[in-house]
Amino acid sequence: MSRGEAARPAFGKILIFGVGLIGGSFALALKAAADVAEVVGFGRSADSLNEALALGIIDRIGIDPALEVGDADLVLVAAPVGATGDILARIAPGLGPRTIVTDAGSTKSDVVAAARAALGERIGQFVPAHPIAGAENSGAAAARVDLYRGRKVVLTPLAENPVAAVDRVRAAWVACGAEVRELSPQRHDEVFAAVSHLPHLLSFALVHDLALRDERDTFFTYAASGFRDFTRIAASHPEMWRDICLANHEALLVELDRYRAELDDLRVALASGDGERLQQVFAVARSARRAWQQS
Questions:
Q1: Is 253 helix (H, G, I), strand (E, B) or coil?
Q2: Beta strand pairing status for 126-127 and 36-42?
Q3: What pLDDT is attached to residue 139?
Q4: Which of 21, 75, 162, 268 is spaced 20 to 30 Å from 31 by Cα?
Q5: Distance between CA atoms of 170 and 112, rounded to whole angstroms?
Q6: Model's pTM, two decimal places?
Q7: CA dihedral defined by 87, 91, 95, 99, rounded to 10 degrees?
Q8: CB 83: neighbour CB atoms within 10 A?
C-alpha cells in the first residue's frame, strides 16, 4: 500500500434486513471502523428506510434482494425471528458463492431450521449469531455506533460452516467492538430462556396486570426506581418478543415452571410468616447478583 493510500475495507458490500437498533448499530459501527464500503438497507417500512438513509446508517435503499445479494460480502438479517425464513427464501435464488449470511435473532434453533429449509445445500453459507445488546427503544433513530462495544455476541456455528465463514462473521462483530463467544444452537436457547426471555415475560406480565386495573394511574404515579428497573424491558418491541417467546417456547416453559415453583416457595414462607426462609432466599440472590455484577 502506497503512502497515504487508505486501507481497503474488510467488507465491500453489506446487505442489512432491518435497519433499526440492531441492524443500524451494526452498520454504524462498521462504518466507524472503516470496514465496509457500502451498506444497502431493506425493510418493511419505507419511512424507516428513509430515516436510516438520512441518518447515514445505510448508503442506499435496496429494491430487489435477489439481485443485490449476488456480489454482497455479508448479509445481516436483523428482523424479528419470525421473518427470518421468508427473508432467506427471498435471497436464496441470487445468493453469491462467496456471500456469507448471518442473523441477529434472540433464538437459534428455530432460525437454523428456517435457514435449512430456505437455503438447502447452501446452508454452510449461513452462520447464526446473537448480539446481546438490545435496548427498550427501537427504530433507526435508536441506532448507536457504540451499542456493541464491550458487549457479548454469541455465534452458534453449524457443522456445515467452513471455518473461514465463521471467522468472517466473527471479524465483523469484533470490528464493532464486541466480545465473541460460541454455543450450540440448543444450548444457546436453553441459556437465554433463563436469563433473557423469562425476564422479559415477567416484566410484560407485571406491567400488563397493573395496566388493566381500575386504579392503574394511582399505581403508576407512586411507582419508583425499583419498578422502573424491573419493568424497563416491558417497553421492548411487542412483535419481536412475541416471536422470541413462541420460537423458544419449550425452553421458556421449563424456566417458567421453575420460576413458578420459586414463587410458590416464597408464598408458603409469606403465608406462614417464615422470615428465616425469606431471608435465606434473599441472601443467596443478593450474593449471586453482586458476584455477577462484579465479574
A1: helix
A2: unpaired
A3: 82
A4: 162
A5: 18
A6: 0.87
A7: -40
A8: 18
75 and 121 fall within a common domain: yes
Q: Which residues of the chain are modeled with pLDDT < 70?
A: 1-6, 134-137
Spatial separation of the C-alpha atoms in residues 138 and 134, rounded to whole Å: 9
Predicted pLDDT of residue 120: 96
Spatial separation of the C-alpha atoms in residues 239 and 261, rounded to whole Å: 28
Q: Identify whether residues 17 and 142 lie together within a single domain.
A: yes
Q: Kind and range of the H or E element at 263?
A: helix 249-271
Query: Considering the domain boundaries, does residue 4 fall inside one?
Result: no
DSSP string, 2-26: -TTPPPPPSEEEEEEE--SHHHHHH
Distance of alpha carbon 15 from alpha carbon 75, whole angstroms:
5
39's enclosing H/E stretch is strand 36-42
12: its cell numbers:
465491500
Same domain, 160 and 23: yes
**How far apart are alpha carbons 267 and 273 in whole angstroms?**
10
The whole-angstrom separation of Cα 169 and Cα 165 is 7
Domain that holds residue 124: 11-183
SS3 at position 144: coil
Grid coordinates representing 26 are 451494526
